[in-house]
Amino acid sequence: ADREREAAFTGPGRTKDGQQVPLLLNVGKAADMSDDGEGVGLFRTEFLFLGRTASPSVDEQETAYRELFEAAGDRKVVLRTLDAGADKPLPFLGLADEENPALGIRGLRTARVRPEVLTDQLEAVSRAATATGADVWVMAPMVATAAEAAEFASLVHKAGLRTAGVMIEVPAAALHARQILASVDFVSIGTNDLSQYTMAADRMNGELADLLDPWQPAVLSLVATVAAAGRDLNKPVGICGEAAGDPLLAPVFAGMGITTLSMSAPSVSAVRASLATHTMADCQRLAELALNAADAQTARKAVAGR
Ligand code: PEP
Ligand code: MG
């Protein structure tokens, strides 16, 4: 019955009163593309690197990126540079064993050790973007400081790419979203890691699921902080963690001022239907309810009850 109700809503993501909230796709390869999505909000590029004894060549990467860009057609693609380390180990990077890999050399930090892996990747992305004419936005994972964001943006521009952004998945970056947005064009919130690092709860540990809950008031509060910074600087703030695909949270995020939601293809229709049944004023009320709740359960119940 839910599926039937959802099917009544088609077209771009928008609230009941017509405010656009584009619904984008999280993909790992061209085969993950779907027509049901206004673009790609997170192209995870790890796929190409996994199980390798050496980094894929620039040519090989260019081919893979072209394939995805062609599948996206004239829709925008947000490509995330290699997010290795921690839960995505890559032996060929030759990183030392660490006591606390989640707090170690991962994401953008791997460029401290192997800078050429990042510059090669940007070169391949740039060639693929030029060859296809695709609207490619590039973002870095695991950024903690405004200086890292600025450095990344300069590498992206040096590679001949126009649009640079970073993921917000470290609490420090959320708190300094304003400073970060000063040197990049957009940010995208990774609620999976943002929850892990805000709550100091390992995302791989099922016993801590209650703490990893994106409805935790502290996590929602950081999301709202980032959204507010984006509004003030007039720059896009997306969400690409799993929480973006939750039809109950989608109007809450829209009400905070989040500009795009990116999710796996099967989540799109439920999120579209949820947004379409709330006006932006409803969304703002839901955001306020969630932000003012004492705990995650109360927040979820308060929003579900509306
Ligand atoms: C996230 O952390 O929310 C995210 C989208 O990235 P990943 O799950 O790949 O770490
Ligand atoms: Mg992440």
Automatic annotation (TrEMBL):
Top class in the EC scheme: transferase
Keyword Transport: yes
Domain PEP-utilising enzyme C-terminal intervals: 10-277
Catalytic activity: L-histidyl-[protein] + phosphoenolpyruvate = N(pros)-phospho-L-histidyl-[protein] + pyruvate
Residues that hold phosphoenolpyruvate according to the record: 44, 80, 192-193, 203
EC nos: 2.7.3.9
Main location: cytoplasm
Annotated Mg(2+) binding sites: 169, 193
Alphabetical GO biological process terms: phosphoenolpyruvate-dependent sugar phosphotransferase system
UniProt entry keywords in alphabetical sequence: Cytoplasm, Kinase, Magnesium, Metal-binding, Phosphotransferase system, Pyruvate, Sugar transport, Transferase, Transport
Cell compartments where the protein resides: Cytoplasm
Origin: domain of life: Bacteria
Active site per UniProt: 240 (proton donor)
Cofactor section: Mg(2+)
Stated family: Belongs to the PEP-utilizing enzyme family.
Annotated function: General (non sugar-specific) component of the phosphoenolpyruvate-dependent sugar phosphotransferase system (sugar PTS). This major carbohydrate active-transport system catalyzes the phosphorylation of incoming sugar substrates concomitantly with their translocation across the cell membrane. Enzyme I transfers the phosphoryl group from phosphoenolpyruvate (PEP) to the phosphoryl carrier protein (HPr).
Protein's name according to its UniProt entry: Phosphoenolpyruvate-protein phosphotransferase
